[in-house]
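Below is the record:
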Amino acid sequence: MWADNIAKRDYLGFEVHTRLIKGLIDEPEMLPITIGVFGDWGSGKSSIMEALKKAYDDEKDKTTLCLQFNGWVFEGYDDAKVALIGAILKAFEDNKSLPQKAKEKVAKLLKSINWMRAIGFGVKNIAAPLVTASLTGGVSLVPQIFEWIKDLSNEPQKISDAIKGLDYEEFKKKFLKEGEDADVKAKYQAVREFRDDFKELLEESNVKKLIVLIDDLDRCLPDRIIDNLEAIKLFLNVENTAFIIGADPRIVRDAIRHRYKGLIERDIEEENKRVIVDYLEKLIQVPYTLPKLSDTEVETYITLLFCEELLDNDCMDSVISGFREFRQTDRYSVFGVDKVKEYISDSNIQDRLEEKVSLISKLSPLISRNLNGNPRQIKRFLNTFVLRKKLADAAKLSDFKDDVLAKLMILEYAEPNLFSELYSWQVSNKGYALPLKAMEVLDKDGKVTLGEQFAKWKSAVEWLQSEPFLSDVDLRDYFWLSRDSLESMSNVMTPPIVKQVLSSLMTKGQAERLIHNKIKDDVLGMPENLQHELYSQLEKHALANEDERKQIFNLFEYLINDGCACGKEFRSMCKQVGFKKKPSLKEIVRRIAAAHQEYNDLM
């Protein structure tokens, strides 16, 4: 089995992405720069970050300083901005060869961020007005900042308690200037002063290039995501700096929408999108999206994972070296078992590798498409597969076939509702899913033709027409192995983006227009199988939580009106909920049926 850790070896051929990003950073005229390494959860962002760190650490030129920062680790800190800036300054402070002038500058900057923490300065009170102004064409900052200062001065004891050991008189002198003639710019002069001091610190430390790698930002709460991005833009983005941010862009967009919902909800739909796009472009200059793995890349990845399990370090290094050479001349073919054998002298290991890989590689196109070419999902799928095989061995199941288990598991992950239906069929027929017989009939072109009664299985046509066929297989043992998943699997393996969008849609009290924007941007922007996973989760929430049913029925109405193909889940939910003494739910179904004739039968 394989640990869900950052890869120490490159099994994905992602070295090309690392070289490209590093080349961009190393062009002096491109600095300062903020690069977004964008991709789904588990797509390989962290591996690229790790590869970048290693590449810079291995360089002889020590005037380049490369730091790593994990946004999620600092999720619990009181001020995300201070956590980020403080972590960077701590790296300078820990440098024993730092010149005295630079040490003094670090001390000054650390004191500055203590002031910022004490008054909540910067992100929530300064950054937000600055960014809002830039997005709305230059609204005056004076009233917003002046009101903030006045609010602070109304409760001096509260401020005094908050800053504790700090010099309150100095605090008043520096931050609480009053009077209409006072220069309001002085109220946020600290931002400019910090940038100037930070720039001088780099110069005095002989750091010609500072690279900060920020990973796992998309695991943070929405406000923390924006706090970190705005801290970079406002305080740290000075000459000779590069910030590389690994995140899922959909989660970042949702965080922007959350932070500036007051501004966004007042705008019309197209302007809403433009505000979010403009904002993201201001914070991240160069977006770089990682591609999903192709079928051949998935088969190569699976092959190398099994190699890792069977080979010692020296042999594995030889295989990876061969893989790199192969990729230099052929980027599109599989680096499979036949190629790997050239680097393995032990015939027993060769045979074991072929036995392990042959089954999964045969199903790699299905795995690729149903797991969205996502490396982490593939690794989790393989871990579950191996674990269930071990359970089958421990239980001494007779006539057990690995390929049947693998095929069932693909349906389990890709189409949980169909997997549940298949389970019901085999339960009522002593292990045999008899309706599969009608669906596994192939035409002369080797394709499945589904009748009207099996229309819901159209999304699984490719799965149906792939071997092994299951209609004549007793499935009871296989479902016994996966019994834990029938209720919980969809929750355990649901990608974070689905959970994020679900949580966002279920937020109470949001305007209808905002919900429609989220559906169009986030739901319809997801791959089809993830959309159905979202609809399935909504259905399960409705069945499990009666007090949320009206909200979820309303959500399905919005989804249907916006063109989402959620009819299967909506119908299933209606069938199971029932409508006796539920006039509010009946009214929603009536509206849907009136607008969409295909739902008239529900009436």
About this structure: The CA atoms of residues 16 and 193 lie 39 Å apart. The radius of gyration is 28 Å.
